[in-house]
């Protein structure tokens, strides 16, 4: 079945008719499938199919349905189901629509007419199989004086003078509509076209002249200043080249273009000197060799500007007249003390005097000196074997008007080459331990020896080797290549007579004067097998050497130990002398003696004799060594009340204790005697005695002694049985 999409067709719209070969009055037509009984319905008795909605081909172009014929009485199928398709015919009812609202394109400036810019696309939803329904045509309705568009949507230029520097972007409007002759509506889109740059303009200086000031001490390659040009092209097309036009200073300055800013950087190629040239003036040119002359519009192909460089004066350091300085001297020459001199001058107009100072030396040490006036001197002869060359750095400083030295200084290298003198005899290069079989045949090579010399190799030939004596079983054969062979002379060594032979070898150097040395080879005689292989050799005693530096260190250590021991002995002797000093004169030392005792009152008149105290002589006693203040002296038997009494006894005991302590130096001594007088009624007040005493003395009598004993009376009178610590 077919049906044309209609916009204004009344509904329902007849689509077609279902036919059947069955003739039955009870036949019933039914349709099934997508949109059956919704969009499409069938008349049950006649089989006519109707559309109850307007169809749009652009939404759905065809519908597939199934037709059934049944008996309405029992719903039995009268014919097999039959499928049919309803196709919707297209009508030109859609307007072409652009795929995007804004298009972008670009084209190089100054492009020829017809150069393609970009392409636009519009889509018509109508059936393209129907002629004229989906055909789209394009038209530029704004900007058609610069661009055009063909039927395929390609936009191209219509002029060859599109200049980016005049106008860089264009905005045009393109219309899309159906094929010619159609009266349908149309749609539009905006196209933004950008002109890309080409190198079609030359650079132009921004100023007709440039003026720069620069100090004369600017470094070579430093920046003096920058000249600027204007180039209307894009940065990637700015390739300015700078050059000198007038002025003979191409060897003094150079102009280099900065690739990022297109500026011309002026740099000095050699040092500037205010005293020689105070101002430079020259013309420079700016051009671009990559400009496409086919599109060059107008103006000159180059731009010229004048550059003035003013050099300012600065205080420059001294300038050496010769660099570097080199002197030669013979080694060990005691007569040479002055090698030459260095010289520097003040390049400024002040022309100050110069003072020279040595800064660095290699090797480090006082080998080469320089005077204030620049004279190179040797304090002592130089040794080439220590160093073949001596280098120093000499600084030159200006002497200011006030006598001070300027902070600015310049440096020069001074090289002293030491020429060689033949002052070292050659020495044997000791090889591995030489050995020989006791049954070695005559002519057997024992070892090849060589020598070394600290001096330079003599130009007159090699070392000469010889034996100090011919009275041996060895011979020496020269190889004439600075080596010699030690061979067996007679053969058959006797190990019973000598297991080790000492062979003196004389080596001379052919120098001027000729120097020689005698070196001893120690050759062991070994037992060998039939093949000549060593089977047994005596072990040599290994020499153990001690360097001079090690010996000096050992002697210093021994000397230090001896000095320390002497100091300790002197200190001990001094202590002993001090401990033996007597005190025979009372005025030398005053002795402070404290007696921690209490007098016995009026009755205690014979406790001690004061004259005994004046006769006390003691050596130094530590206070810590004194007895405890609570220690008691045992009472002597009997009632000693005559003469010195018991106090004399106590003092004698203390003297004996002090006399027996001889370890300390003498000093003022404090002695504490915890002892009560014998005639005291109160006896000892020490808690050491009272704590263990069984005494039943009544201490109430203390109340009668007055206020001074009130506290003691309260303590002993109230609780006589408790210990009391005094």
Automatic annotation (TrEMBL):
Transmembrane segments: 550-570
Annotated PROSITE patterns: CADHERIN_1 (PS00232), CADHERIN_2 (PS50268)
Keyword field contains Metal-binding: yes
Keyword Zinc: no
GO biological process: adherens junction organization; calcium-dependent cell-cell adhesion via plasma membrane cell adhesion molecules; cell migration; cell morphogenesis; cell-cell adhesion mediated by cadherin; cell-cell junction assembly; homophilic cell adhesion via plasma membrane adhesion molecules
Matching SMART domains: CA (SM00112)
Sequence ranges assigned to domain Cadherin in this UniProt record: 6-98, 99-205, 206-320, 321-428, 428-536
Protein's cellular compartments: Cell junction, Adherens junction; Cell membrane; Cytoplasm
Major subcellular site: other
UniProt membrane topology term: Single-pass type I membrane protein
GO function terms (MF aspect): beta-catenin binding; cadherin binding; calcium ion binding; protein phosphatase binding
One GO CC term on file: cytoplasm
Keywords recorded for this protein, A-Z: Calcium, Cell adhesion, Cell junction, Cell membrane, Cleavage on pair of basic residues, Cytoplasm, Glycoprotein, Membrane, Metal-binding, Repeat, Signal, Transmembrane, Transmembrane helix
InterPro entries in alphabetical order: Cadherin, Cadherin-like_dom, Cadherin-like_sf, Cadherin_CS, Cadherin_Y-type_LIR, Catenin-bd_sf
Function per UniProt: Cadherins are calcium-dependent cell adhesion proteins.
Cross-referenced PANTHER family: CADHERIN-23, CADHERIN-5
Name the record gives this protein: Cadherin-5
Phylogenetic lineage: Eukaryota, Metazoa, Chordata, Craniata, Vertebrata
């Amino acid at each position: 079945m077919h049906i044309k999409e209609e916009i204004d067709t009344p509904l329902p719209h007849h689509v077609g008719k279902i036919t059947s070969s069955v003739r039955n009055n009870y036949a019933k037509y039914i349709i099934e499938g997508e949109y059956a009984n919704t969009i499409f319905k069938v008349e049950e008795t006649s089989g006519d199919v109707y559309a109850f909605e307007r169809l749009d081909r652009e939404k759905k172009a065809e519908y597939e349905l199934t037709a059934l014929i049944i008996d309405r009485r029992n719903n039995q199928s009268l014919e097999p189901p039959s499928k049919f398709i309803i196709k919707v015919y297209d009508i030109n009812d859609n307007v072409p629509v652009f795929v995007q609202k804004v298009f972008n394109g670009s084209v190089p400036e100054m492009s020829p007419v017809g150069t393609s810019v970009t392409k636009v696309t519009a889509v018509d939803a109508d059936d393209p199989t129907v002629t004229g329904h989906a055909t789209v045509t394009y038209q530029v309705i704004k900007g058609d004086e610069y661009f055009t568009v063909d039927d395929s949507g390609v936009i191209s230029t219509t002029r060859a003078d599109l200049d980016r520097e005049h106008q860089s972007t264009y905005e045009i409007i393109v219309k899309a509509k159906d094929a010619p002759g159609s009266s349908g509506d149309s749609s539009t889109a905006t196209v933004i076209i950008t002109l890309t740059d080409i190198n079609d303009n030359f650079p132009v200086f921004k100023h007709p002249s440039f003026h720069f000031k620069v100090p004369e001490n600017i470094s070579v390659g430093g920046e003096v200043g920058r000249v600027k040009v204007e180039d209307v092209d894009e940065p990637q097309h700015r390739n300015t080249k700078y050059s000198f036009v007038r002025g003979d200073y191409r060897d003094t300055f150079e102009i280099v273009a900065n690739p990022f800013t297109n500026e011309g950087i002026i740099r000095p190629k050699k040092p500037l000197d205010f005293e020689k040239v105070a101002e430079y003036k020259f013309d420079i040119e700016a051009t671009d060799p990559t400009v496409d002359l086919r599109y060059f519009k107008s103006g000159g192909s180059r731009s010229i500007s004048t550059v003035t460089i003013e050099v300012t004066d600065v205080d420059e350091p001294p300038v050496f007249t010769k660099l570097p300085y080199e002197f030669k001297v013979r080694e060990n020459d005691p007569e040479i003390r002055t090698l030459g001199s260095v010289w520097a001058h003040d390049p400024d107009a002040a022309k100050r005097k110069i003072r020279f100072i040595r800064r660095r030396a290699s090797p480090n040490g006082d080998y080469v000196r320089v005077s204030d006036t620049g004279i190179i001197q040797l304090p002592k002869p130089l040794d080439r074997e220590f160093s073949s060359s001596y280098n120093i750095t000499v600084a030159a400083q200006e002497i200011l008007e006030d006598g001070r030295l300027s902070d600015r200084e310049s440096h020069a290298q001074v090289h002293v080459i030491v020429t060689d003198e033949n002052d070292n005899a050659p020495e044997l290069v000791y090889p591995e331990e030489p050995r020989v079989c006791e049954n070695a045949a005559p002519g057997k090579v024992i070892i090849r020896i060589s020598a070394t010399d600290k001096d330079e190799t003599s130009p007159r030939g090699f070392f000469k080797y010889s034996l100090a004596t011919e009275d041996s079983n060895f011979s020496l054969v020269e190889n004439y290549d600075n080596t010699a062979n030690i061979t067996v002379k007679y053969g058959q060594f006797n190990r019973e007579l000598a297991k080790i032979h000492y062979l003196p070898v004389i080596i001379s150097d052919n120098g001027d004067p000729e120097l020689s040395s005698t070196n001893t080879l120690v050759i062991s005689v070994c037992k060998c097998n039939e093949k000549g292989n060593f089977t047994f050799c005596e072990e040599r005693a290994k020499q153990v050497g001690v360097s001079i530096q090690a010996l000096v260190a050992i002697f210093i250590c021994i000397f230090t130990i001896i000095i320390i021991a002497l100091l300790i002995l002197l200190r001990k002797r001094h202590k002993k002398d001090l401990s033996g000093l007597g005190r025979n004169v009372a005025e030398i030392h005053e002795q402070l003696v404290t007696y921690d005792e209490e007098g016995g009152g009026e009755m205690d008149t014979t406790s001690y004799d004061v004259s005994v105290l004046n006769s006390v002589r003691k050596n130094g006693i530590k206070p810590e060594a004194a007895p405890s203040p609570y220690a008691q002296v045992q009472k002597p038997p009997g009632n000693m009340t005559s003469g010195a009494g018991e106090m004399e006894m106590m003092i004698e005991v203390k003297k004996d204790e002090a006399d027996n302590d001889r370890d300390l130096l003498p000093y003022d001594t404090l002695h504490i005697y915890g002892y009560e007088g014998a005639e005291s009624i109160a006896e000892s007040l020490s808690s050491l005695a009272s704590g263990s005493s069984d005494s039943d003395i009544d201490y109430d009598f203390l109340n009668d002694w007055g206020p001074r004993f009130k506290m003691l009376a309260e303590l002993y009178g109230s609780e006589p049985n408790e210990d009391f610590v005094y």
